[in-house]
Amino acid sequence: MPKTIFSFIAITLLLLATIVYSMTTGSISVGFVELMKGLLGSPSEQVEVVRDLRLPRIIVALLTGAALAVSGVLLQAVMRNPLADAGVIGISSGAGLVSLLLVTIFPTLFFWMPLFSFVGGAIACLLVYSLSWRSGLSPLRLILVGVAVNATFTGLGQSFNYRGSYAVTSVNQAISSIFTMKTWDDVHMLTLYGGVGLLLSMLLGSWCNTLVLQDRTAQNLGLSVMKVRLLVSVVAVLLASVATAIGGLIVFVGLLVPHIARLLIGSDHKVLLPFSAIGGAWLILTADTLGRTLLAPTEIPASIVMTVIGGPFLIFLLRRSERVHGH
């Protein structure tokens, strides 16, 4: 327990320090005291720019990271597979493709983009789950099918995007991860849909603890396995889809954060879910801040930073899975 408490305190302090650094650093630098005075009282011109342009970007990055990390925890519990991640197995790319298509056809329905993304994510999840199932879910089979589904949806999305029309360009965020020019409207939309998903996920810890057991054992404990698995999957797809619709396509967050969190605090989902939410928020904000400041004024998208970090981590997990399962 002391290790868990220490880990929560450490990641929370790290998150707060990163938020302050991200708000005060960039093309416009603002001192911490000036920033606080401006936010709490009459702001200077620089603080107004930070509040209107940089603060929405930071909040979108935080909520996107939290949603993707929690989605990864839920998917891994449902599929009993440590390699399940919305970005790797195609849920995020499916969400991006469907939202891109529908918002291009019906641009006036832009506010419903997260719901369109949810439909796409659900289709991708169903495809991966059904095509991978063969008397159970093999970690390697799931990841191979997921990579194939992800490649298909990504290719279709990129083909559609390269048509070059204005309408397509305007919804480019569905298949990319550019936090630049995020507005308070994006924050409101992500808070509404993503907030509901995050709140629901925090109530699912006990069910997730039981889902990781064998189905027969879970049924003997009184759990309706299929209903619970479906409900948890819906919340996981909702979180990943909403994060993709607003934050863009970012992979490996739901893979990195849950695994590192388990090493720090264990596998109890009642604790793992909130810790992963904080850890995911910190990871994406750090990736976005580094991408924004390292080569300024040139920006590196957070998705590229995550790909550089997450690729080797996925290879490590695959090699460890081969040793465990003897393939």
Brief write-up:
The protein is mostly helical. The chain is built from 14 helices and no strands. The protein has helices at about 1-25, 30-40, 45-80, 90-105, 115-130, 140-160, 165-170, 185-200, 205-210, 215-220, 225-245, 255-265, 270-295, 300-325.
Overall body shape: globular
Query: Helical percent range?
Result: over 70%
Number of helices: 14
Helices and strands: which structural class?
mainly alpha
Give the radius of gyration. 20 Å
Runs in which pLDDT lies below 50 for 5 or more consecutive residues are 166-172
Average predicted local confidence, pLDDT? 82
Helix and strand run: HHHHHHHHHHHHHH
Distance between the termini: 36 Å
Strand content: under 5%
Number of strands: 0
- Tell me the major beta sheet: none
Which helices and strands, and how do they pair?
Elements: H1 2-24, H2 32-40, H3 45-79, H4 91-105, H5 113-132, H6 139-161, H7 166-170, H8 184-201, H9 205-211, H10 215-220, H11 225-247, H12 253-265, H13 269-293, H14 302-325
Helix pairs in contact: 1-3, 1-13, 3-8, 3-11, 3-12, 3-13, 4-5, 4-6, 4-11, 5-6, 5-11, 8-11, 9-13, 12-13, 13-14
What does this structure look like?
- This protein is mainly α and 327 residues long.
- It contains 14 helices and no strands.
- The protein has helices at residues 2-24, 32-40, 45-79, 91-105, 113-132, 139-161, 166-170, 184-201, 205-211, 215-220, 225-247, 253-265, 269-293, 302-325.
- Helix 4 (91-105) packs parallel to helix 6 (139-161) and helix 5 runs antiparallel to helix 6.
- The two termini are 36 Å apart.
- Mean pLDDT is 82; it is low at 166-172.
